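We emphasize that the prediction below concerns an isolated chain of 596 residues; any contacts that depend on oligomerization or on bound cofactors are therefore not represented. The input was used exactly as deposited, without trimming of termini.
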Amino acid sequence: MNANEISQRLAQDAADVASFLLPQGKRVGQEWKVGSVNGEPGQSLSVRVKGAKAGVWSDFSSGESGDLLDLFMAVRGCSMSEALRDAKQYLGIRETMPEREKPNFKRPAKPTCQTAKAGALEWLKSRGLTDDTIAAFKIAEQVKGDKTYALFPYLRDGELVNVKYRNIAEKRDMRQEGGAEPCLFGWHLIDPKERTVALCEGEIDAMTLHQCGIPALSVNAGAGNHQWLENDWERLQRFSEILIFFDGDESGEKGAQEVVRRLGMDRCKRVKLPEKDANEFLQKGAVDVDFQEYIEKAQPMDPEEMRQASDFMTKVKALFYPAHNEDRDPVLRLDKDLDWFEFRHGEVTVWTGYNGHGKSLMLSQVLLGLVDQGERFMVFSGEMTPERQLKRMSKQASGLDRPTMQYLDAIGRWVHDRIWLFNVVGSAGMDRLLSVFLYASKRYGIRHFVIDSLMMTDVPEDGSGAMTAQKEAMRKMCDFARRNGCHLHLVAHPRKGADESKGPGKLDVAGSSKITDGADNVFTVWSARKDESDAELDPDKPDAKLELHKQRNGDVQHYTQWLWFNKAAQQFATNSRRAAVSYVPFSGQPEVINPA
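Result of the prediction step, given as a token string:
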């Protein structure tokens, strides 16, 4: 457990920890009062023992403050590593892990070199580094023929662990001591009580940050090599906050993500400077306060799925007060817009209805309404050949029983980059369907997909394991829609009804209840199926209805839309006139028909 985790555990028992460290103190309300970190009775030092700030303490005489790990250090006069050890012992935490055999690293001999002079010294100073900074990091110089090398010693716990040699005239001419331990550069300048440290990609960046008052360490071999993590793991555990100053390029971002993952998202923050790295920022004129400004702006590298609620409030306001010029989700459109339902991205809609009552026909018209609003769709219908599907759709698109050849050509041009068909008649595998749908979504920007119907896929209807398979298929479809911002339309057959004089309900869908449970929306389609030879046929009486049974994310939860059917145009209308709609513009003379 790292320092941040131990601090949180101590805060949970703040009252007991305070009385343990400062037994002569006294409880006053939500605070533990004592004279100072020396423990004498008094009021100057307060430790918060309850509430959101439990574990925070402050000595108003000395100005010291911190959390309970800092209190361990202050009371016992020890380092952070020692405070961590004592705190774990107090909490009863035993972290005994099996030890693997440690590699045999060589400690380098003291290299032949001299204190940085004209060549290396001037090179470092040209990078904005001061004499004091160069001296603090003990940078040396080595001259070999006409080449001058700057030597960066890796000092840790009082010994030389590694050395990096850098040709000041040629960056690619760089090496480290053979067989030396990969570790972080700059340990000898980190205060043993320090709780925050910066990690960067290069030694000069670490020197830059140190010069600006930021305790800093550098990796030894760039953003992509993390061997140092194993060797310095224990030493890094004492830091509650780690600031990642890796470069802003692709390798820096990738390396930062890996370091954060291994050291812990809870204590790491990504600092993004306006320049490639810290030293370049310094050379552009940045000073201490500029670096602090970007540290204050640093954000934790939270998992991408984790978002603050406030991030969504702009969209929430748009739901309450949609602006006229804002893009909105397409609505349910037949012969007019039915604003009580929108086809939102990332949802699954189930369409059901008795055999022959027009659910697929209704969905086909709904899809044309979506295309009319700028959407694209792809259909799998295992029960109809593509040409049969398009014959029916051509009637609906034109609003005519028999559009002219020229009109059919116009329809062909209109559907060209708007409608795609999954060209399989018969059963199709669910995984293959979703794979092709994914390609279509990414390649062509298609956002509406139809599976007509579930029984035409490899998902079993009944028998052993059918319910589990249907549940898993629904999970895959919902996951596809949500991950890709698409809308998936699923035609599902209902159970055989004893009485088809009224439409089926949500619970009448055949198979697992997980089909409608997992769906965001459920529609049923019902037709009166009147006898056309009936002389007493009432043209004003609705002969079909579309019923919304479920809408997870909309304001309307249940709605019945009565409809009239235009047989010639194969269209449903919302009024008794049964007026057909032409979705495809055509300048020729369309065939005139008598809607009925």
